[in-house]
């Protein structure tokens, strides 16, 4: 995603066993003047905290007016269009298929000193398969 200039937020849960990627477009929409003024006035910059369900409101008036509709409106500002989501999904799946995502062996080897012969054998083993975890979901 970074190589394709696609902003995203990351939430890591369960001691690293679950990683959530939240592609988003808020900064781009903000730069283009496409964010609703009501949202801009709240001074909330939706990031991983808000996207994952914890909305931080900085002003009392925003807290007093907070509602489910407001939360949906805020999330809509950071959400990708369906077409853009499909493009981003393709980038992610391409990275996984091409092996740009580290295998478990490569991750373990990364913490071993470079002088260790085992490190070199694992580091250069690009034939190791890369699998998506059975629990991996891509949600539109």
Tell me what the structure shows.
This protein is 45% helix and 9% strand. The chain is built from 8 helices and 2 strands, in the order ββαααααααα. It has one domain (2-101). The protein is globular, with a radius of gyration of 19 Å. α7 (104-110) packs antiparallel against α8 (117-123). With 140 residues, the protein is mainly alpha-helical. Residues 1-97 form the GDPGP1-like C-terminal domain. Specific and highly efficient GDP-D-glucose phosphorylase regulating the levels of GDP-D-glucose in cells. InterPro entries: GDPGP (IPR026506), GDPGP1_C (IPR058865). This is GDP-D-glucose phosphorylase 1.
Provide a concise account of the structure shown.
With 140 residues, this protein is mainly alpha-helical.
Major β-sheet strand ordering: 1-2
Average pLDDT works out at 77
Along the chain, the helix and strand elements come as EEHHHHHHHH
Taken from the alpha-carbon principal axes, the silhouette is globular
How far is the first residue's CA from the last residue's CA? 17 Å
What structural class do helix, strand and pairing data support?
mainly alpha
Number of strands: 2
C-alpha Rg (nearest Å): 19 Å
Strand percentage lies at 5-15%
Query: What proportion of the residues is helical, as a percent range?
Result: 40-55%
Biggest sheet overview: 2 strands, antiparallel
Tally of helical runs:
8
Provide the domain count. Answer: 1
The poorly predicted ranges are: 112-131
List keywords for this structure.
140 residues, mainly alpha, 2 strands, guanyl-nucleotide exchange factor activity, nucleotide binding, GDPGP1_C, EC 2.7.7.78
């Amino acid at each position: 995603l970074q190589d394709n200039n696609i902003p995203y937020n990351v939430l890591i849960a369960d001691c690293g066993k679950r990683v959530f990627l939240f592609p988003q477009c808020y900064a781009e929409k903000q730069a283009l003047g496409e964010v609703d003024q009501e949202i801009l006035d709240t001074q909330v910059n939706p990031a991983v905290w808000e996207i994952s369900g914890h909305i931080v409101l900085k002003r009392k008036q925003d807290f007093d007016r907070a509602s489910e509709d407001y939360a949906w409106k805020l999330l809509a500002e950071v959400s990708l269009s369906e077409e853009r989501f499909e493009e981003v999904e393709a980038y992610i799946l391409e990275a996984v298929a091409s092996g740009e995502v580290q295998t478990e062996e490569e991750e373990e080897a990364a913490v071993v000193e470079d002088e260790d012969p085992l490190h070199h054998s694992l580091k250069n083993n690009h034939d190791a398969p890369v699998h998506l975890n059975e629990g991996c979901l891509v949600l539109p």
